[in-house]
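Incident log, entry 3
Record: Protein LURP-one-related 15-like (188 residues)
Problem: checksum mismatch between cached and fresh output.
Input:
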Amino acid sequence: MATGHAPGNPIPAVRKHPPVEHPVVVIGPQYLAQYPVELAISTKLWTLGENDFKVSDITGTLIFQIRTMHRRWEAFRGESKEEKDLLFTAKKSKLFQFKTDLDVFLANNKGDVPDFKVKGGYRESSCSVFLGDSNTMLAQMHRRHTLASTILATDSFGVTVYPNVDYAFIAALVVILDEINADRSGED
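Fresh output:
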């Protein structure tokens, strides 16, 4: 799902929430920081088929890219599609929703209780990621509306990932959320 390598250290964001109790690692420990990380996620609008999402720090330095393929909401390690390399799955919390809420299950979770929840109104341009059914917030996303993004036909998201949270995983969730909402709005 993610290509590239983790940089030395992304630019820190202003800390607004206490850190999580234990590190949250899904993609890999190289994507953990001891401080909040601000990310910018962008993609071209009006593409046919697959989308490429670029994940940068707030200075514009590219950290990695995510390519979506065929609307799959399963994330695998590398290019694999084998069950042993499954990282997580994401699904809508409810069949019918006015806003998109996601339940996210790690590969080893065979139960009904999600490991993570994505809550909020994507069409309202924001969402939050929580640890399971708790109120422990891991990240927040908001859509950026700028004159440049309108002119260049790009979509851009600002993402704040809190300390000790796998920011590649959070970026992947934002991409999945974007793809789900593109399906719902009839885009693509």
